[in-house]
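Structure first, sequence second, as always.
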């Protein structure tokens, strides 16, 4: 009999033969600097929980109170059954924290990016996007009917040339990660803001990995660069340093009102449970009250970079808590990652499609939960596996 899905096992087998088949495992403990699996405990250098808040009891307590107060589910899109009190409080606190008129929360950072790009651009517009932007930005550009021009990573001269040819489009949108998730590199934000001014473009940035970690007050790299006023569309996520779930956009009241009316992932997706909003409100409070967390993570990253370079590893241009160890081939990246695993350390090997062919790497990410001893263990292991 004809099996309409027979192509799937065949394709999976192909992935298998290329050693590219992925599978999901189940944790036996909370997310933290160490993670226990069925077959043992591993040191975790692979999560984005940079400030070690994912398992913080204060977030749990806030969530529990909210469940008691507001129940669990939200019932419908916020446009239909409204925002819960916790969500309203979170959006107000977020706007205050970010120094913007308004803030809007989304079901995920992915939805925030994709839904914002699509809402801001249409046929006759052009989107200029860094080649290393996150998948959710790329998918946003695919959803939009606008023309898309991709520029080489952080190449402002190339971008300016593109902009010179984009004068006939109705509107221009420049979009970039501020901290690139695989390379740990930082976008040339001040130069991008200059180009946006000069060529009358909208500038949208994604602070997913920078919120909570960079800036005097933890607002991210736009704060660090002192250019918040020059970036009218700022996206972030609660799912990384804030230790929770969901995405957000901050900016003017008009921007947020437009997204409420035009962003499909906002309009056609059920509001997140109140418990998540309450936990993220607690998290927002913590990142303001405890700046020592971000200071410590960045100091650990500085230390680790020096020690890994002493061992002869190549680390590219990371200046952040994400440290790529650039190894080249997929085979070598996966082999080194599995050797670290045997030494009790989780560091993922990153390969296509997350990075281009031949630019495979080990992605080390640091957390406030790591101790000096954890770092020493990692450095010893990196010395042992050195090819
Ligand atoms: C993780 C990530 C997102 C998506 O955020 P989620 O809340 O996990 O959906 C968006 N942008 C960048 C740069 C990311 O790394």
């Amino acid at each position: 009999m004809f099996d309409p899905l027979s192509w799937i096992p065949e394709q999976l087998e192909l992935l298998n033969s290329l050693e590219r088949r992925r599978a999901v495992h189940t944790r036996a403990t909370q997310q933290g600097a160490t993670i226990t699996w069925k077959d043992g405990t591993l040191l975790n250098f692979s999560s984005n929980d940079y400030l070690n808040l994912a398992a913080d009891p204060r977030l749990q307590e806030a969530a529990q109170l909210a469940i008691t107060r507001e129940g669990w589910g939200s019932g419908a899109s916020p446009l239909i059954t409204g925002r819960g009190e916790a969500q309203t409080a979170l959006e107000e606190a977020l706007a205050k924290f970010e120094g913007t008129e308004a803030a809007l929360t989304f079901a995920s950072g992915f939805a925030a990016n994709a839904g914002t790009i699509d809402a801001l651009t249409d046929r006759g517009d052009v989107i200029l996007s860094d080649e290393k932007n996150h998948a959710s930005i790329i998918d946003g550009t695919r959803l939009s009917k606008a023309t898309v021009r991709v520029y080489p990573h952080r190449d402002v001269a190339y971008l300016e040339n593109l902009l010179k040819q984009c004068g006939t489009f109705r509107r221009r949108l420049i979009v970039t990660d501020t901290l690139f998730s695989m390379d740990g590199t930082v976008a040339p934000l001040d130069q991008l803001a200059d180009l946006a001014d000069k060529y009358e473009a909208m500038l949208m940035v994604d602070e997913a990995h920078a919120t909570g970690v960079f800036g005097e007050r933890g607002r991210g790299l736009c704060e660090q660069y002192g250019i918040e006023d020059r970036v009218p569309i700022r996206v972030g996520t609660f799912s990384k340093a804030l230790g929770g779930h969901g995405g957000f956009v901050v900016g003017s009241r008009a921007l947020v009102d437009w997204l409420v009316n035009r962003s499909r992932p906002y309009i056609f997706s059920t509001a997140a449970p109140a418990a998540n909003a309450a936990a993220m409100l607690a998290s927002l409070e913590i990142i303001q009250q405890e700046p020592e967390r971000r200071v410590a993570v960045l100091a650990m990253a500085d230390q680790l970079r020096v020690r890994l370079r002493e061992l002869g590893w190549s680390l590219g241009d990371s200046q952040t808590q994400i440290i790529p160890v650039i190894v080249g081939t997929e085979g070598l990246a996966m082999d080194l990652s599995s050797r670290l695993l045997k030494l009790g350390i989780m560091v993922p090997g990153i390969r296509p499609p997350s990075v281009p062919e031949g630019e495979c790497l080990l992605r080390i990410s640091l957390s406030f939960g790591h101790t000096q001893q954890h770092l020493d263990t990692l450095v010893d292991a990196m010395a042992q596996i050195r090819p």
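Margin note: The chain is about 40% helix and 15% strand.
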